[in-house]
Amino acid sequence: MDEARGSPSKQIPVGLDAATQEEYASVSKLLQEFTDISTIDKAWTFKSDTDNVSRAMFVISQPNLLSNKRRKSILSSHVLQKSNNSVSFHWAPFPIEMTGVSAMVPSPSGSKLLIIRNSEGDSPTHFEVWDPSQVKKEFAIPRSTHGSVYSDGWFEGISWNADETVIGYVAEEPDPPKPTFTGSGYKKEGKTDKDCGSWKGQGEWEEDWGETYAGKRQPALFVIDISSGEVLAVPGVGKKLSVGQVVWAPSIQGQQYLVFVGWPSDTRKLGIKYCYNRPCALYAVKAPLFKSDASVTKSSEAEDSLIIKLTESISSAFFPCFSPDGKFLVFLSAKSSVDSGAHSATESLHKVEWPSDGKLDASLKIIDVVPVVMCPEDGCFPGLYCSKFLTRPWLSDGHTMVLSSYWGSTQKILSVDVSSSLTDIPAIKYGSPLGKLALDAKWGWLDVSTPTSQCSEKVLSLLASLQFDIMKIPVRNVSENLTKGASKPIEAIYVSSKSRKSDSPDPLIVILHGGPHTVLLSSFSKSSAFLASLGYSLLIVNYRGSLGFGEEALQSLPGKIGSQAPNKFAAAAARNPVCNFALMVGTSDIPDWCFFEAYGREGKSIFTESPSAENLALFHSKSPISHVSKVKTPTLFLLGARDLRVPIYDGIQYARALKENGVETKVIMFPNDVHAIKRPQSDFESFLNIGAWFNKYCR
Three-state DSSP class for 627? Predict the structure, then answer.
């Protein structure tokens, strides 16, 4: 007994043997090195009073595993352009952490910074307006006015007006009154404050927009006067539209308008996250007047609340953006997605002339700028796949936009390669035209030494030992029914070591994206770099149906899913996988997706909330669950318990079936994660287990 007390033995957690402990310790140490790499989330540039000097501001983030949140900071720099066309960046000595910040938006001039802090529970939302030295104004907006401000990147819309006195934004509509009950039953005209002799009921349940929007109320449009803090709801929109992406429009005959995107919300709300096939349009509405605007001649209330649909002739319009001179309104469209049913497809770019001197109405002519590309010729532009604009996309000529878009398995800026690769951590580059600015101008790109590009020597050494190539893989068994675009080769990114350690090749990890209509790029990925640094080669496959290869190739996949390869792999890892369409169609926030991917374009027209026995039979035949008896591969499942897109029972059913068949199976459940599994602790534990799982069966 005494000897045992004096020499405590090493405690092994239940379920982990000593060898597994050592494997976890080794793999987690390397994963931590990659996890610590910072990410550049947003960037702005501002003019300066001094010639040849401009200012830049960057939002950088880094996972904080202990708090299970992302730590966000602001890093600023002065950019000095020298006479020899070179530039130097003079960085602030340290980044400034922004704790509890939901959104930060600088004003157009760069003289003010809006900080928004959404609170939890019944607490108010806080608005802070900063100048270069201090907080100038701070307002607490109660939940009786509105709920949290949307900062999700989709409904999100926070826009300064031209003179930087008013901000338009999108927030959750205020909570509706709930029924009050007492010991005697229903209480009429219940008080809003808490009463120990009564309680609040739940009221009627309302649909939300599915994955990542569970429990969030409908997005609505508001404006705030940053001098007085007065907040007004923009009239006229009502409950029939969910609004987002608001921008201030150039005034028309002295009248200020707000332009926004509207999604019909008076019927079933299908999941909208990553789903561009939801119809939407651009609308305009007069900006409401504050009490301080008493000198302005007010029109009738009915006229003020009239909203105007600007894009009547097209099924999708989003991310409105005005040209610097205010003459054109440019926007993206996912009409290929809406019209076909594919959740993501080839996009198009359009514009309308803004009537600065005339009356605004719904008869604006939509002009195609970049149409949908059906079948790109070899090496030519494959179509637009950008999904959003840059924060400030205009070059100095005022009519040229900079767009970031997928081009096959790479990402391009116009026709310039993006500034990172699978073997290079993200970096900032400074671009300027060589000679006169024109559409065909050559651009020079200078590397910028930045604090965000620093990482450990070990990571730099490991990345330097890797190489990658984009392989073109011919389509086999091309049939006459296949379109020209669908017959073209697919692409796969092959990552390998520069030096062979032995005569035998490194084990290969095949990485497939979900969607299925998305794409894996040759830009930097922490998780892929980590797996390659464990000694694996990677084959990152962009199969037929991926974005970036033209619309014909994309539309060739729906209706043809469901084949398997159960005997080719030594081990497998799946994050929130689709395993059974027949189960998913009744529980997912996007049941229409099941119909479209199983039936093809026909699926859009036959979609129903009550699938028939024939529908369910086809769904089962197209699902991995129908092949489960053939599977012998040890499989790791990583599931988010709050996933509304592919609910957890889809993966659990498949895992149970594998176990029933004697297949080695492991399930890790993340109770607070949705489909993406990207909370810092969950992401870390996911790839720690993936690395250890592959090492167990492939080494």
Answer: helix
